[in-house]
Amino acid sequence: MKNICLLGATGSIGESCCDVLRGHKEKFHLSAFSFHKNVEKARAIIQEFSPQYVSCGDEESKERLSKEFPKITFGVGSHGLVEAATLEEVDVVLTAVSGAVGFTPTLQAIEKKKTIALANKETLVMAGKWIMEAARKQNVKILPVDSEHSAIFQALQGQDRTSLRKLVITASGGSFRDYTREELEHVTVEQALNHPNWSMGKKITIDSSTMMNKGLEVIEAHWLFDVPYENIEVVLHRESIVHSMVAFHDGSYLAQLGASDMREPILFALGFPERLEMKNEKPFDLTEIGKLHFEKMDEERFPMLRLAFECGKKGGSFPTVYNAANEIAANAFLDGKIRYLEIEKYVAFACLQHKEKEDLTLEDVIEIDKRTRNFVRKEIEYAQSQENEMRR
Ligand SMILES: NC(=O)C1=CN([C@@H]2O[C@H](COP(=O)(O)OP(=O)(O)OC[C@H]3O[C@@H](n4cnc5c(N)ncnc54)[C@H](OP(=O)(O)O)[C@@H]3O)[C@@H](O)[C@H]2O)C=CC1
Ligand SMILES: CC(=O)[C@@H](O)[C@H](O)COP(=O)(O)O
Ligand SMILES: [Mn+2]
Predict the structure, then answer these.
(1) What is the pLDDT of residues 69-78, one digit of tens each?
(2) Which residues fall in the annotated binding site for Mn(2+)?
(3) 86 falls within a domain
(4) Fewer beta carbons within 10 angstroms: which end of the chain, N or C?
(5) Percent of the chain whose predicted confidence (pLDDT) is above 90
(6) Closest to 46 measured CA to CA, from 10, 80, 17
(7) Do 57 and 108 reside in the same domain of the chain?
(8) Does residue 392 surpass a pLDDT of 90?
(9) What ipTM does this complex have?
C-alpha cells in the first residue's frame, strides 16, 4: 500500500488523481490532502477517502471542517501544505497545486525522503537547481506527471542516456493557435479558456494559449532530464496524441501516445515502477484519429517560447522571474485587469529589467520571486490608475 499526499486535491489534476485512487483502493491510500477555497469539494473528498490530515486554505474552513470531522487533523495555509507533505506515514507526494506555492512543501517533502510525483511545473521553473540538488542528496525520485515529461520519462526507460540526442516536446498550440497577432488584441477570457484538447485549470489553460506553458515545460524538462536547452525542441502537434518524443543518436525516435487524459501520467507516476490497469479508460483508436500533424513553431507568433529558451540559457534566477511575472499577469488577465497581449508584455518587461545577483542562493531566489510579483502587481495597478484617469 502506498500512502499518498495530494496537494491541490480540489483542482483538475486533483480530480483526476482521486479517480486513479478510486480505481486502485488496494494499492493506494489517500493519507493527506490540501485544498485552497473549495470547501464543498474538500468535504466530499474527506467523506470518500477518510484521510488522516487535511490542509485548508483559511482558518474559517479549518474551523468548519474540524467540527464536522473531529478525528481528522487539520492544518492551514503554507504551514498546512508542509505538514501534509511531510506527514510521517506519507510515501508519495503529488504536487498539484497551481503556481510556485508548491515549491516549499515539495522541497520539505524531499528533505523527508518522500517520493515526488510532480504536476506543478512552476516549482521546478522557480528553483529547479535546488529541487534537483535536494532530490539527489536525499536519493529521492521525482516522477513527472506533466504529460510531456511523463512521455519523455517513459520513452527513456531502459535507454542508455549517452545515446540521447534530443527531447522533442509537443505543443497543441492552445486556444489561439490559428489567430494572427492582430487577432489576439481583443480576445476574451472565455475564448482563452477554450482549450482545443485538454480540460484543465484556468491558469494552465491561459498559459497554454500564450505558449508560457510550453516555455515552462522546456525549463521543467531541462531540470528533470538534465538536458541542455540546445537539445530541447518544441513542435506544434494539434492533436495532443503524441505526448512527446525522444531522439537518439542512431536516428531513432521513441514517442509515447495516448488519449488526452491526465489520469494516465498520474497512474504511471503513482504506480511506478509497475504499470497498473486504467479503470474506465477513455476510448483511444488511432484509426479513428486517422492523421497526426507536426509543424514548426513560429517564434514570432509565440514570443514567450523564445523568451523561455533565453531565460533558461541565462539560467540563475531568470526562469524565476519568467514564472513569477507570468503568475501575476495570467491571473490579472483572468480577473479582467489586463488585456490578453499584456500578459506577454509584463513577462517580457520583468525579464528585461531583471539584474542577476552573483552567487545566487535559494534565499535570493525566494526574494526575487517575491520582488518580481510585487513589481508586476505595481505595474498593473499603475497602468490601471492611468487608464481610469484618462477615462475621467
Ligand atoms: N490540469 C492539467 O491537466 C495539468 C496541470 N499541470 C500542472 O498541475 C498544477 C495544477 O493544475 P490544475 O489542476 O489544472 O489547476 P487547478 O486550478 O484546477 O487546481 C489548483 C489546485 O491548487 C489549489 N490552490 C490554488 N491556489 C492555491 C494556493 N495559493 N495555495 C494552495 N493551494 C492553492 C486549488 O484549491 P481550490 O480549488 O480549493 O481553490 C486546487 O486544488 C499546475 O502547476 C499545472 O501547471 C500539469 C499538466 C497538466
Ligand atoms: C496535459 C498537459 O500536460 C498540459 O500541460 C498540456 O500539455 C497543455 O497542452 P499545450 O500546452 O500543449 O496546449
Ligand atoms: Mn504539459
Answers:
(1) 999 999 999 9
(2) 146, 148, 217
(3) yes
(4) C
(5) 98
(6) 10
(7) yes
(8) no
(9) 0.99
Ligand 2 and 236: CB distance under 6 A: no
Q: Residue-wise over 211-225: b if at least 16 C-beta within 10 A, else e?
A: bbbbbbbbbbbbbbb
- Residue 389, pLDDT > 90, answer no
d(CA 75, CA 304): 37
Detail the residues annotated as belonging to a binding site.
10-13, 37-38, 120-122, 146-148, 172, 195, 201, 208, 213-214, 217
120 touches ligand 1 (CB under 6 Å): yes
Grid cell digits, residue 169? 516536446
Mean of the per-residue pLDDT values of the chain:
97
Same domain, 296 and 178: yes
Looking at residue 112, its amino acid is K
Question: Are residues 295 and 191 part of one domain?
Answer: yes
Nearest Cα to Cα of residue 154 among 250, 323, 278, 267: 267
Residue-wise pLDDT for 241-265, tens only, equals 999 999 999 999 999 999 999 999 9
Specify whether 9 is located in the same domain as 88.
yes
CATH number at residue 121: 3.40.50.720
Q: What's residue 387's pLDDT?
A: 85
CATH number of the domain within which 369 lies: 1.10.1740.10
pLDDT tops 90 at residue 46: yes
> How far is CA 349 from its chain centroid?
23
List residues forming the annotated binding site for 1-deoxy-D-xylulose 5-phosphate.
121, 147-148, 172, 195, 208, 213-214, 217
Tell me which H or E stretch contains 30: strand 28-34
| Nine cell digits for residue 242 | 503524441
Q: Whose CA is nearest to atom 5 of ligand 2?
A: 146
Residue numbers of the domain that contains 121:
2-145
Question: Residue 265 falls within a domain, yes or no?
Answer: no
pTM of the model: 0.98
Do 121 and 245 have their domain in common? no
Residue with CA nearest ligand 1 atom 31 = 36
Residue in this structure with the C-alpha cell 488577465, named with its chain if needed:
333
Q: What's the 51 CA to ligand 1 centre distance in angstroms? A: 20
Q: How many domains does the chain have?
A: 3
Pocket test for ligand 1, best of 15, 97, 198, 206 (most atoms within 8 A of CB): 97
